[in-house]
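re: ur question from yesterday

yeah so i grabbed the chain u mentioned. its 253 aa long if i counted rite. heres the sequnce exactly as i have it in my notes:
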Amino acid sequence: MAEPPSNPVRELTSVPVGHGIWRINNGTTVVECGDHLVLFELAVLPDEAKATLAFARKLGRGKPIRYLVASHNHFDHTLGLRQAVAQGIPVIQRPTTLAQFHETISRAAPDYPDDLARSPQPFKTHVMGDHLRLQDSTQTLDLYWGRSNGHMADVIFAYAPEQKVMMEGDLVTAAYEWQNWPDTFRDVTAYYKLDVQKISPVHAVWKAHPDVLIKAQAEQLLQAGTKRARERCEREVKNRNYIPGCPIQSKYD
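ran it thru and got these structure tokens back, copy pasting raw so excuse formatting
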């Protein structure tokens, strides 16, 4: 059986989000520390994941990638996971999701082997609870559990406190049209007392702001998306259709 054509690798570009922080145009955020890099998310297919890892190292002037932070377990956030493991990069997540990732890593790929199937590597992990701080003399990066989110129970996000930058997958930018779980961003910033001023998203859902959102734009996206989601739920109920996430509940309106 012939291997189907691989998805083409898009041209990779980046924009600076803060000092030593860049967002690559496919949603990976690169954080440069003194002698290593930390990546938030690798949500692309293997060929592009390999190119993204190389691009990140180029941004970081050849520094090694010490950790990959995977926000949660959905397929569109874990497509590059096996490629990271193939390159020996440890993955940070919470225990339950790491168990799911282990299943993904351990599966054989006999028909269309990727780099991990061709050259198996151990699955290196770093387990976190509610909070994990990664810090050296040049950079501080806090990882937090997103708490009580019906869309992704184990979601984690990153926050660079000195730069007031959040890195998130699906807390604010799950979709442009509909915000079915709109409270988590507000809840976690209040609970952890975070002063978020910029957001580097995994999904570029807002064409006017594809690379970085300021807090006011995030609030606008959440409010407008919640309104659209409720209107959608009302239409579907009239047609006797059940849509996961309906009714839309929020304590901020």
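noticed a couple things. The chain has one domain: 14-238. also The chain has a mean pLDDT of 94.
anyway ttyl
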